Protein: Exodeoxyribonuclease 7 small subunit
Organism: Halalkalibaculum roseum
Amino acid sequence: MSKKERQSFEEALSRLEEIVNELEDESISLEDTIRLYEEGIKLSKKCTETLEQAELRIEKVNEQHADNEDL
């Protein structure tokens, strides 16, 4: 497994923030802009998937908790 695959949500989000800051630099080359944009899209997708998985886990816990209260 590569480092990017093992990257935590917080690390991915931090890198995404770095990319945004780098892209705001008007002196950046077009090639670097495209490379950073591509990396940012991948990180954004990873963060979104992680958040969606967390939301599903929370919903499951809440459902289980609600079921236990009914007993």
Observations:
- Residues 30-70 form the longest helix (41 residues).
- DSSP finds three helices and no strands in the chain.
- The radius of gyration is 18 Å.
